[in-house]
Amino acid sequence: MDGYDAVDRALLRALSEDPRATVVALAERLRMSRNTVQARMSRLDAAGAFLSFERSIDPTPLGYPLEAFVAVHARQKVLAEVVRALAEIPEVIQAHGLSGQIDLLVRVVCRDAHDLFRIDEEILAIDGVERTETSLAMGELIPFRLAPLLMR
């Protein structure tokens, strides 16, 4: 899929405003047939337009009320192995490779400060990790969003 046409953008805008909307509700809202909406949704899904729905699950009721970002400095030659080891830590919920001074930015959830210390120790114990810098997240100020881009 090389891009989104006007119908795709309208559908994605409607979903960004109401992510739980059913196909029938979307069809009514956009004044399209249910089959058209269903076909477009299937095509968008197959093309990878939708990110993981896990992103919307709040970890707090699971017992993880705190979130932190861990800047990881690693040896470049073993970066892939470091990433594989990070993926084995359940509290690691996301990681990005970066250019610049930091090699990886790792998002973790934890039960409390002691738990964060334990998780940081696990990350530091990974062969190839040279050092970390950990910052406790104080709150999400701008949640993940694409609606402004879709409105453009």
TrEMBL record:
Q: Which InterPro entries match?
A: AsnC-type_HTH_dom, Dimeric_a/b-barrel, Tscrpt_reg_AsnC-like, Tscrpt_reg_AsnC/Lrp_C, WH-like_DNA-bd_sf, WH_DNA-bd_sf
Q: Where is the HTH asnC-type domain?
A: 4-65
Q: Which domain of life is it from?
A: Bacteria
Q: Which Pfam families match?
A: AsnC_trans_reg (PF01037), HTH_AsnC-type (PF13404)
Q: Give yes or no: UniProt keyword Transcription regulation.
A: yes
Keyword list, A-Z: DNA-binding, Transcription, Transcription regulation
Q: What is this protein called?
A: Lrp/AsnC family transcriptional regulator
Organism of derivation: Agromyces aurantiacus
